[in-house]
Write a structure and sequence with these properties.
The protein has helices at residues 26-36, 60-73, 97-105, 132-149, 179-192, 201-204, 214-222, 244-253; strands at 11-14, 40-47, 79-87, 109-113, 155-156, 195-199, 228-231, 258-263, 266-271. By secondary structure, it is an alpha/beta fold. Bound molecules: zinc ion (ZN) (2 copies).
Amino acid sequence: MKITRGTCLPDCHIHTRFSSDCDADPRACIEQAIALGMPLICFTDHHDMDFPDGEFQLDVPAYQQQMASLAAEYAGRIEMLCGVELGLLPYLGKERRIERFAEAGQFDYVIGSIHMINGKDPYYRQEFEETDEELYRLYFEQTLESIQENSGFQALGHLDYIVRYGYEKDRFYSYEKYRDVLDEILTCLISRDIALEVNTAGFRKGLGFPNPHPDILWRYRDLGGEKITLGSDAHMPQHVGADFKAAAELLQALGFRYLTLFHGKEESRIPLDMT
Ligand SMILES: [Zn+2]
Ligand SMILES: [Zn+2]
């Protein structure tokens, strides 16, 4: 797949009402993407295994059926891919649950993301007794373990997402503070050929940067990492493509030239200066 047209980079992280924390109409998301001039989008609704209260369970057949019918309807106006965002947990690797789910679903793109720490959702910050610093470290340690233990995902979603939910957010946060574990995460991704996602929701969640922090992106490149994917993590149609210009400028300033686009077993590169 070669993407050379369009006035906006493709958004490869979008949620719709198939995610239990979202009521966005997929059609409205597509219309927004077309209005922005995107040549392609990829929906990535949530599926989190063993989430408390049975939340975030994706109805795969209904989801894929709806996405296939929209893809056919919008053919010629925009390319549509159907992906998924899977919640990673270290122990899921023992029975290859992520890998098996991804294989069974034949998704175009699978993002692996860490949404839970010790079985709890850090969105509810008060449920954790740890200080921000302890919680961030715990999140990174469980991220490392999750990516080491699991397969079947092509990109790691929103590394340092936890900073969105700290009491002090990024006030005392830096790459340097967690350098040991972050370097292990980046090295593991590079050696396993897993892409690193740049998730622009960080800008909207009170951080002045995407997830991960630019220093981590810099370090990823410094270690030889090249595979970057880009997504807004939109849960509302108006957030599709949000802050993509800022993200593209940042990535170019850090020396990246391409985004990686996954399309089933294929992957292609999209120049960051496409627009
Ligand atoms: Zn996520
Ligand atoms: Zn997401």
